[in-house]
Amino acid sequence: MESSHTSSPDNDVCTNAIETEILRLLSRDAQRQDLISLLDQVRAMPPTPKRAQQIASLEIGIALKERFEQHQLRERGLLALIETAQDLTAITDLDQVLQAIVQRARKLVGCDVGYLSIYDPQRGDFYVRATDGAFSEKFRQIRIGRDVGICGFVARNRTPYTSADYEFDERFVHTRHVDTAVIDENIKSILGVPLLAGGQVIGVLFVGDRYVRSYIAWEMSILSTLAAHASVAIGNARLFEQAQLALQQASAANALLTRQTNDARVAAEAHEQLTALVARGGELRDICLMVAERLEGHVAACDEAESTICDSGGQQAFAALANGSGKMPDWVSDSLHAALDESRRSGRSSLAFSNPGHVCRVCAVVGGSGLLGGLVIHTPVELNEMSVRIFERSATVAGVVLLLRERREFSILSDTPVVVRGLLHRPQAELKKLALQAAALGLELAQPVNLLQLRHQKLGVDHIIKQLRRNAGLSGVLLDQVGVSLVALANPAAMASFQTALSRYLNEVSGCYWGVVSDTVASPSDLPDAFQASVRNLELCIKLGRQSVMLGERDLSLYSALFAHASKDHLDGLLRSSLHALYQPGDARSMELARTLLAYLDHGYNARLASGMMHIHINTFRQRLESIDMALGDWRAAGRALDIHMALRLWRLREGWAPADAAVE
Q: What is the strand order of the sheet 358-367 is part of?
C-alpha cells in the first residue's frame, strides 16, 4: 500500500489547474482580489499533499500582481508628466492647461479631489483657480492669506505639506471660513506642494481625500514635479499674454515682440524635443548632448555630491582654466559649489563665473525629496533670457530622469541584500528560491561563484556601491554591505571584469583599502563557509598592513586560520623568533637574503633551479646561502626549516615581495 504522502495523479492535475488559473488571471490583468479569493478557496479545501504547493504558488502570484501594480503606478506617473510637458509646447489658454494639470494630479495620486490655488499679488492672498472632483461652491470660492492654513504654510516655507486628518491637525493656523468649506466638501486628508517661479511662490497644487490617509514620499515627489510644470505653464502663459498685448501697441514694440515670439518658439521646440527624448527612454547624456547642441556650449550633469555623472564631450571649455596642468583650480570648484547652492535655494539657475570667452552657469536638479544633482553649462558668452529658460527646463526634465534612475536603483538595491545575505549566512534561505532571485539579478548559482570583500579607509560602502553602479555597469555582480565591508558575488568571468572596474575606481579616489578574493566556490551551500574564511582573510590582511592591494584566498587562508586571534605585535614577534637576525624589515640586504632562502626552500633545496628562477649566478646564490647560514645557524633541521619556511612566506605576504618567476627557459 502506497504512503499517504505520495502525490496522486488527481493532486497533480489539481495543482496544474491552480497554476494554470494563476497564469490566466495574471495574463488578463485580473484584480488582486481575484487571486486572494482563489487563495481562500484553496485554503478551505480538504488537506492534500499538494495544497502547500498550491498555496505557495498563489502567494507568489499575488506578489507578482502587487509588483505589476507598482510598476503600472510608476508608468502612469511618467506618462502623466510627459503629457503635461507636451501641453506646454502649445500654450493658448492658461485655464485649460491648469485644469489638465489638476486632473492629472488627481488621477496620478488616485485622490478624490484636486485643486490649484494661485497667488493674487494685488490682494496678497491665494484663490482657487482650478478644481477637479470638488462639488461644493463654498470650496471653489476659498481665498486665504499667506499667514494661515495649509496654503499659507506651503507658501511661507516653500515646501510640501501633508495632513492625514485636516480637522484635527494643529500644526497650522485654522480659519473658520476655510475649515467650513473643507468640511462642506468632506475632505479629510490633504497634500499640497508649492509652485515656484523666480524664487517666488505663485501658487499651491493640492490633492485631497474624503477619508483619513497618509501620503507616501513618491506621491509627494511626483506631485512636486507636476507643480514644476505648472509654474512653467503659468510663466509661459503670461509671456504669451504680454506678447499679445505688445502686438496692439505702437510699432516701436514690434521688434521686441518678434524677438520674444521667436524665443518662445525656440523654447517650445526645445521643450518638445526634451519631452520626446524622455518619452523615448533617453538618459542624462542624451539631455546633455541636446542642450549643448542647441545652446552651443559644453554641458555636464553632476550628482548630489557634485561628482560628474556624464557630459556632452569635448574639454575645450576647461583647457584655458587648467593651464595645461590637467587639474581644475580650487576657485572653479568653489564657484560651482556656491552656484549650485544658490540655485537650489532660489529655484532658478545661477551664474558660477564669467570670464572673457568663458561663462559658466549652474542649475540645480531638484525632486520632491530634495537635491538630486545639477546641470552645468559652459558657453563663450552669457545666455540670453530665453536660453536660460531652456537650460532651466532641461534641468527639470533631468530631474525626471534622475527620479526614474533612483527608482530603478532602489528596485535593484531592495532585492540584492535579500539574496546576498540569504546566501552568506546560516541557516541559508531556500536555495531554489535564492537561485531564481539571483538569476534575475544576473548571478547563476548553478555555475561556480567568487566572493570579494573590501574595506575602505575613508569611503562608505553605500557611496562606493552607488558610484560603481553608476560608472561601471556591474552586470551579473551582486553588491551589498555586510558589517563595515563591501561584499561582491559574481561568476568568475563577471568577477574578473568587476575587479578591473573596481581597481580603476579605487585608483581614482583617495584613501587606502584592503581587499580579498575567494577561490572559486562550486556550490552555493558552501558560500557561508567561504564568507567566514573571507572575513578572517580580510582581518589578517589588515593586521599585516598590506594596503591598497587585492589578495587571493590561497595566499592568506593558511595564515588566517593560524593567526585568527593574533595581533600585529604577535605576528612581528613570531617573525623575529623564527628568523632571528635575518628579520630586518626595511633593510635591503636582509630582505634580499630572505627572498633567496624562500626561493631555495620553495624549490626543494635545489640551488641551481632557485638561482635560475631569481636570474642570478649560481655562485652568487651560494654565497648568499653562506650568509644565511651565519645569520640563522643550524636552520636545516626538519622542524626548524618548516618554521622558517612559513615565517618567510608570512614576511613575503606582509611586505608584498614579487615572487620568483614560475619557470625558466
A: 308-311, 298-303, 370-379, 358-367, 350-355
